[in-house]
Design brief:
about 270 residues, alpha/beta, Helix Hairpins, five-stranded mixed β-sheet, 8 helices
């Protein structure tokens, strides 16, 4: 019997099944979810207990549960339908009802925004600016042209291309607003490239003492983390263990799969 796929592998399959314009927002939240498990987690680690623990941690942080958990719930449901999970534990993810009193909702939203202050490296800031420029200068005009073409059919009641173009426009404009908000409020992180201590921006070469293999990671902010590209968040279990440590030191990382030990071989920058 073959080994179970990793969560990353199932996420890649799930994202490939989505429309292109829906992948970006889902991918960001699913990357956050998989980082919580540690390195190379198996899909078998997605259990009811872990799901509930993940939701509880988000609740304590004051995060927007709907934005963070809806993609996770959809992914878990997909994993069950495809046979990767033995039961539909997606039903364990529940959202509290939004209060009907506008004043309380405003205060709650304010707390969420404060709790999710975004910090970025210079590279991350440049990437976000590049994406924003691309959406404004290339994608937005393209969507406008799609709408113009779709309007040629005057029967809007059964105009599928028009409906699709409107939906595409909504996704693009929402992403533009999100990027503009990030650029307006993000804090630029001072990177550490001394080579003596691990800090944000450091490229660290590690020796996995259990599997006798070498791995390399770049430590970045939570907003920039991309495990597939070797970029891990300083808020992840591995990132926390590495911060302010020096070459030659052995660090211990606690993950759902157990304790992992790494020796810091060198800091490349």
């Amino acid at each position: 019997m073959g080994s179970s796929p990793t969560i990353d592998e199932v996420i890649a399959e799930y994202l490939a099944s989505l429309p292109a314009d829906a992948r970006a927002s889902q991918q960001q939240e699913l990357s956050r979810f998989v980082r919580w498990f540690g390195l190379n987690p198996s899909i078998e680690q997605v259990t009811g207990i872990n799901l509930e623990t993940y939701q509880q941690q988000l609740e304590r942080s004051g995060a927007d549960l709907i934005r963070h958990l809806e993609p996770v719930k959809a992914f878990v449901q997909y994993s069950w339908k495809k046979g990767y999970l033995p039961e539909n534990i997606a039903k364990l993810i529940k959202f509290k009802k939004v209060t009907s009193k506008g004043q309380k909702s405003d205060r709650a939203n304010s707390r969420v925004e404060k709790a999710e202050e975004i910090q970025l490296t210079k590279e991350g800031l440049d990437q976000i600016q590049a994406e924003l420029d691309y959406l404004i200068n290339e994608v937005r005009p393209q969507v406008a042209h799609e709408l113009f073409e779709a309007r040629i059919d005057k029967d809007f009641r059964e105009n599928a291309p028009y409906d699709a173009a409107k939906q595409h426009q909504a996704h693009v404009e929402a992403r533009i607003r999100e990027l503009e908000r990030i650029l307006a409020t993000a804090t630029l992180i001072e990177e550490n490239h001394s080579g003596d201590k691990v800090g944000i921006g450091s490229v660290v070469v590690l020796h996995d003492m259990a599997f006798d293999e070498t791995v390399k990671y770049t430590l970045v902010s939570s907003s920039e983390a991309d495990p597939k590209a070797g970029k891990i968040s300083v808020a992840s279990p591995v990132g926390k263990a590495l911060l302010d440590r020096s070459p030659g030191e052995v660090v211990e990382v606690s993950a759902p799969a157990g304790i992992i030990h790494y020796r810091i071989e060198r800091i490349e920058r």
